[in-house]
Design brief:
The structure holds two protein chains of two kinds. Chain A is α/β, with parallel strands linked by helices. Chain A is built from eight helices and 18 strands. Classes of the chains: A alpha/beta, B mainly alpha.
Chain lengths: 444, 281
């Protein structure tokens, strides 16, 4: 059994968030408030670093959970073994970054301990400390030192860094003259030279163009396969799935799922966005929309027109919106955005080519607009729909919209009838999996 | 509780809430000496980037101030200057005063200016406000050579007491670092400091013997006056360089004492606040 490299024990972190300020009603109140503000501000600022003393028995007292205090992390415990590549997943505000900041020693925990064995490097951002006025050369040294490298170490790896970044011609140019791509490449090249026993990485792949992201992922794969211990925080499920052996899901600061990466991700996606094939608003006054359009319902339908949330990749899928037009004279258009489970838009579609009212104003009445996606087109994924109804023309005006209102799942039964034919491996990298005509012939 | 030491041996880090007084970790500071060096280089390289006059600004700032002061205080107000030509008298104070002002100003806002670093990467935070104190030394020495030129021009020569020059420079640095780090830490939480610093610096010019000699201060106030360490530094400079007044032993001793207190309290306050920097900056 390999050694434990990181041991996280009951880790919690509390932050104070600014309580809401009250607006004033009169001029007099505003003046009195300005005069009194220093006292209030001082109390508020003082409170930033003062919390009521806590001990564990006290935790359920109401003051402990006072309204302007949030627990970014709460009682997180787990261990990471040598050579393990752990992915940390969670929505915004789930405590991922807080967790990495504690592990990187940037901020201290409120309670709990972390024990780390071996040299740690953390990469919460690429290019931290880059100075725009300095040359690429100067910045390599500065950034390297900031990341914890010694001068000799940087000197030794200097050529390699320049080589990896591909900016050798501009190495004596101030980095403010760099294109953003060059800047990031140089920054990553420095970071790539880190050679710690434990590596902590936060979303650094979210920057740069696709080839660059590939390069980063490749580098990370290399690191991960080199037997080093890596903790990797990302929104990119694909990356987590490819790189990590294990994943932890954080939800409101707590570890809710801890297991093999594939399992954790599918659990996360299942819980994060439950399937929902129909969303309706019976009360027109609270329905999304304005005085021109109100939406009654959004539905996902199968080939028989029945509401359905589960589809085979070969099945056609229809999405419809039922809405009332309350005011005539507008040229309306409905648009759908298809999101895959990684949160990327796969494609969008508009009704204004096939709509009978494509060139004329829409009359008052109740409408149904349905988009038919053919079978053998969507890839296997959990797909969510965002819609918008707007006026097209000189002034683009939105009337009603909703994000991720319906969610359905497209899965692959893996028999050889679909687009995959007899291809046995995963086919998950693409947004769509259309059935296209191929010509295969023997010419000699 | 057994777990700790049997599992982790080499390169072990334990992260937990800090309790009690925080002391300066000298071993760690030493590990980051390369970073410290690169910060200093960065500050020096960046200071006069994309300016026409570049490094000349190091001289122009105190020189122009000296010209203005000479016109108004030397010529118009006929301020006494211990028997030295007023320009030299004033410039000898301006170099130390400019160093102090620049260090405190840059140091005081240094943490806020580096908030991006502080929230993204770990390193001993003390490096940040200490950097301007060392980077500023270059300007100081450049201006000092100008002073030497002026002394040669006016045929003024230093006394043997010039061996105390390093001591005076150390007092000057300790004072600037103490005040600078204190303001830097305070500034993270209370941004009022941004407005307080320029005001205090203006005030400081009046309570330091920059435009007038310390001998003008009535005897019974001399002790209170010498509590300002920059007073001792400036008077000390004049004494050892010009030799027209005897070395102000008492004043320099008080200055040294106060500067050490300022330095220590600045660093100690900084260390106590350090744990909150990343959260509240």
């Amino acid at each position: 059994m390999s050694k434990t490299m990181i041991k996280v024990d009951n880790l919690s972190k509390r932050y104070r968030i600014g309580a809401k300020e009250q607006g004033y009603k009169t001029f007099r109140e505003a003046i009195v408030d300005t005069v009194m503000a220093p006292v209030r501000n001082f109390k508020k600022l003082k409170k930033l670093t003062k919390f009521n003393d806590l001990n564990h028995q006290d935790q359920n007292r109401s003051s402990f959970f006072s309204d302007d205090v949030i627990w970014a992390l709460k009682d997180a415990s787990f261990e990471v073994r040598e050579g393990e590549v752990l992915g940390i997943i969670g929505r915004n505000g789930a405590g991922k970054s807080t967790f990495l900041k504690i592990l990187s020693n940037i901020t201290e925990p409120t309670t709990g301990t972390v024990e780390i064995r071996g040299r740690v490097s953390s990469l919460l951002e690429v290019g931290t400390g880059f100075h725009p006025e300095l040359t690429g050369r100067d910045n390599i040294f500065l950034n390297g030192a900031i990341l914890g490298m010694r001068k000799q170490e940087i000197e030794k790896k200097f050529d390699e860094i320049v080589d990896f970044s591909g900016v050798d011609k501009f190495i004596d140019t101030p980095v403010k003259r760099y294109s953003s791509g060059m800047y990031i490449r140089l920054a990553f090249a420095v970071a790539a030279q880190l050679n710690p026993e434990v590596l902590l990485i936060d979303e650094v792949l979210a920057v740069g163009d696709v080839p660059f992201q590939r390069k980063c992922l490749g580098k990370m794969e290399e690191v991960a396969k080199g037997g080093r211990t890596v903790i990797f925080v990302s929104h990119n499920m694909q990356a987590i799935q490819n790189l990590c052996t294990r994943a932890i899901i954080l939800q409101e600061g707590r570890v809710v799922i801890d297991g093999p990466a594939d399992e954790a991700i599918s659990k996360y996606l299942g819980e994060g966005m439950g399937l929902k094939a129909e969303k309706d608003w019976p009360n027109i006054d609270s329905a999304p929309g304005d005085n021109v359009v109100r939406v009654h319902a959004v539905r996902v339908l199968d080939r028989n027109g029945k509401v359905c949330a589960n589809f085979d990749v070969r099945d056609p899928v229809s999405i419809e919106v039922e809405y009332s037009v309350l005011e005539g004279g507008h040229r309306l258009s409905l648009q759908f955005y298809f999101f895959n489970e990684e949160g990327h838009v796969i494609f969008t579609s508009r009704d204004n080519l096939d709509s009978p009212w494509r060139n004329t104003a829409c009359p008052i009445g109740r409408f149904r607009s349905r988009c038919n996606v053919p079978g053998d087109f969507l890839n296997e994924s959990q797909i969510s729909i965002t819609y918008g109804i707007d006026t097209i023309g000189a002034f683009h005006l939105g009337h009603a919209s909703g994000q991720h209102v319906v969610v359905f799942k497209v899965s692959d039964s893996m028999d050889s009838e679909g687009v995959r034919g007899n291809f046995p491996l995963q086919w998950r990298h693409d947004g769509v999996r259309p059935r296209l005509p191929w010509n295969v012939e023997k010419i000699v | 509780m057994i777990r700790k030491n049997e599992l982790f041996t080499k390169h072990q880090t334990i992260i937990q809430p800090k309790k009690g007084w925080q002391m300066v970790d000298f071993k760690e500071l030493k590990n980051y000496k390369d970073l410290f060096w690169f910060f200093i280089i960065r500050d020096i390289k960046v200071r006069y980037k994309q300016t026409v006059l570049g490094g000349l600004w190091a001289i122009i700032q105190p020189l122009l101030a000296m010209v203005v002061f000479t016109l108004f205080f030397g010529k118009l107000a006929k301020m006494p200057s211990d028997g030295i030509p007023y320009p030299v008298f004033n410039f000898s104070a301006m170099i130390a005063w400019t160093y102090f002002v620049n260090t405190v100003t840059i140091s005081g806002s240094s943490l806020i200016g580096s908030s991006n670093l502080i929230t993204k990467v770990y390193f001993p935070r003390l490096v940040v406000p200490l950097t301007p104190a060392f980077a500023g030394l270059l300007d100081f020495f450049i201006a000092f050579t100008i002073l030497i030129g002026m002394m040669l021009f006016f045929h003024i020569y230093p006394t043997v007491m010039v061996i105390f020059l390093p001591l005076l420079i150390v007092i000057m640095m300790l004072t600037a670092v103490g005040v600078g780090t204190f303001f830097a830490a305070l500034n993270v939480k209370y941004r009022d400091i941004r407005y307080v610093i320029p005001f205090l610096i203006q005030l400081g010019l009046f309570i330091s013997p920059v435009v007038y000699p310390a001998s003008m201060v009535p005897g019974k106030y001399q002790f209170i006056y010498s509590l300002n360490p920059m007073a001792g530094v400036i008077e000390g400079f004049r004494s050892i360089l010009f030799g027209t007044t005897s070395f102000p032993v008492q004043m320099v001793v008080v200055s040294a004492f106060v500067s050490v207190i300022l330095f220590l309290s600045g660093i100690v306050y900084f260390k106590q606040m350090e744990r909150y920097f990343a959260d509240i900056i």
